[in-house]
Amino acid sequence: MALNPQIANSIVDIGKLMYQKGWVAANDGNISVRLDADRILCTPTGVSKGMMRPEDMLIVDLMGRKLEGARACTTEIQMHCTVYQLRPDVNSVVHAHPPVSTGFAVAGRALNLAILPEAVVTLGTVPLADYGLPGTPELSRQLAPFIPNHDALLMANHGVVCYGETLEKAFFRMETVEHLARISMVAELLGGPRLLPRREVDRLMAARSRYGIQFAAGAEPEPPIAAEDMIAMKREERFEITRGELVSLLDEVLRARGVLTS
User: Fold this and answer.
1) Distance CA 92, CA 42 (A)
2) What sign has the CA pseudo-torsion 206, 211, 217, 219?
3) Residue by residue, what is the 3-state secondary structure of the chain?
4) pLDDT tens sequence across 6-30
5) Which end of the chain has the least Cβ crowding within 10 Å, N or C?
6) What residues contact residue 246 under an 8 Å CB cut-off, 6+ apart?
7) How many CB atoms are closer than 10 A to CB 43?
8) Distance between CA 137 and CA 122 in Å, rounded?
9) CB of 257 within 8 A of CB of 226?
């Protein structure tokens, strides 16, 4: 077996873009491409994504076992293998730590609001998976429930993973996730986003096929939260209390603090 120079060069180019955009620091991040039904070409561990060479790449099987390559495999290859096993339509996986979207993941916030038509069409919802120790089966277990129905995931206190039919599509989805996160943050700083109404979200979701966006058979893409959904959620958070109940509650608090004694 021999490394595919064209694919290896493409991985190097994407790695440089990720590094230049500030999505990774030091040796962070990893990239892989499915070569065929049994083999994956992936990045090595311990090498900056901005300084890789084609000959640094490795070939592994779908269980993550090294078949060829001089360097050690990325420690997070199991995460990539899990995506390939659950999504036969996926041919590339990209993982990085874009600062703003990773900030949402660290804050425990999914990117699930309908604020941009382009993001609704290309991503739908970007859910937040619970924390799993990087490089362990625990991480794959946390991601597995989301992989079949989403093309991009936030990983709590970790980063972002995106995947697609090609390496370029996986990279572009990562770019869209970070772009969405930056706009979301600015909107919140300006008083909070105004969400698209449900009818517009439904129209955008229905239009995905016109833009060439397809999902694996049986997948159920999750639409983002629309304006009506947010209103309903806020109503559920409200509670009512009578004047008498409020007086009684305040009286109890004041007595507990010794302000009232009789």
Assistant:
1) 10
2) negative
3) CCCCHHHHHHHHHHHHHHHHCCCCCCCCCEEEEECCCCEEEECECCCCCCCCCHHHCEEEECCCCEEECCCCECCCHHHHHHHHHHCCCCCEEEEECCHHHHHHHHCCCCECECCCHHHHHHCCCECEECCCCCCCHHHHHHHCCCHHHCCEEEECCCEEEEEECCHHHHHHHHHHHHHHHHHHHHHHHCCCCCCCCHHHHHHHHHCHHHHCCCCCCCCCCCCCECHHHHHHHHHHHCCCCCHHHHHHHHHHHHHHCCCCCC
4) 999 999 999 999 999 999 999 999 9
5) C
6) none
7) 29
8) 29
9) no
Helix 227-237, helix 198-206: angle, nearest 10: 130
Residue 134 CA: distances (Å) to CA of 175, 178, 185, 225: 22, 21, 26, 29
Closest CA to 202 of 175, 228, 236, 169: 228
**128-129 vs 152-155, strand pairing mode:** parallel
Strand partners, 95: 30, 161
Q: How many CB atoms lie within 10 A of CB 1?
A: 8
* Token representation of residue 204: 């955008």
Distance of alpha carbon 45 from the chain centroid = 21
Q: At what angle do helices 167-189 and 99-106 cross, to 10 degrees?
A: 70
